[in-house]
Amino acid sequence: MNLETGLMNKVVLRQPQVADGTSIWRLVRDTGVLDVNSPYSYLMLCKFFSDTCVVAEQDGQIVGYVSAFRPPADQQTLFVWQVAVAESQRGNGLGKALLKALIRREACKNVCYLEATVSPSNLSSQALFRGFARDFSTDCEVSECFPAHLFPGGTHESEMTFRIGPFHYQT
Ligand SMILES: CC(=O)NCC[C@H](N)C(=O)O
């Protein structure tokens, strides 16, 4: 899928490959707000979870990334782990485009809910998910998922679950 951006440089949305692992790790690190997981974890996601992950590529650079999976105990839900958008792409709808590309995948067929956790200070991510729910004319319920005290060192905010759905499929 090609997306025209304000700069008219095509942004291509595609499944990640293991060769994208380090670029994704750098993109997540450079956001300055996401938890930077091990480089290994991004290689693992690209290898085993590529059906429910998506990257945005522009001029050979990874400028956007969403990792997700369908929890084994709740296959009707797509759990979105991380959404990362490069500084250069902020404000042009790339995050929402990545989510919409993902939810349209065959691997997400019959998904009824999308869930993600967002920290209280991450207002842009909160706006992204609330806007996504609005675009699908469905609900967005917020509840506590991981209280701050569950994280070591006392430096991590709580994580709130944004549960979007149900998605109304055309029968
Ligand atoms: C949707 C999203 O990016 N959530 C982030 C969860 C967590 N703080 C992380 O960075 O993995």
TrEMBL record:
The lineage of its organism: Bacteria, Bacillati, Bacillota, Bacilli, Bacillales. Pathway: Amine and polyamine biosynthesis; ectoine biosynthesis; L-ectoine from L-aspartate 4-semialdehyde: step 2/3. It holds the Pfam family Acetyltransf_1. InterPro entries: Acyl_CoA_acyltransferase, Ectoine_EctA, GNAT_dom. The keyword Transferase applies. PANTHER family: N-ACETYLTRANSFERASE, UPF0039 PROTEIN C11D3.02C. Its EC number is 2.3.1.178. Gene3D superfamilies: 3.40.630.30. Belongs to the acetyltransferase family. EctA subfamily. Residues 11-152 form the N-acetyltransferase domain. This is L-2,4-diaminobutyric acid acetyltransferase. It comes from the Bacteria. Keywords: Acyltransferase, Transferase. Coiled coil: none annotated.
